[in-house]
Amino acid sequence: MGRSCSLIVAIVVLVGALAGCQASVPGGAQLVHLVATQSEVRLSPATVHAGDVYIQLDEPLDGGSFIFTAENAPMTDNDLERLAHGDLLGTIQTTYGPSCSGPQGADVGHLSGPGVCGDVWKLTLAAGRYAILGPGWLPQRSEPSVAPTANPAGFIAPSTMAVIVVLP
User: Fold this and answer.
1) Which domain holds residue 40?
2) pTM
């Protein structure tokens, strides 16, 4: 009886320890740091290579979320300008979050998932440009009969939107 109780206790301890394990970003992986507050969205770096990309939400520290926006083809300056003005037609949006850092920040740098606390999401990206919208992003008003076009010098994102460039 004593031996089987010890075995049960050992199994319970092992299962409890494994349940607390969380995945972290693999060494050498592409890691992009994201700030997505009510007033700004920033990426560092903003250019990566196609493949697995890990997005770590650094701010807000108390948990946050962001919207990842793509199209079926690479986004042009005009596509990004339309998005900045609230035109979501033809886009695919995925919301990530809320993030959580756990007690005393124990889960910072861990992959987030259903029922798993963390502040990192893994995305597999093809070459192109993608938009990240922060919680403060609101569609700007534009005349419905006038399609917004990008500045000839290139698209300039509003402070609540960032663009990630994915190279081949």
Assistant:
1) 24-167
2) 0.77
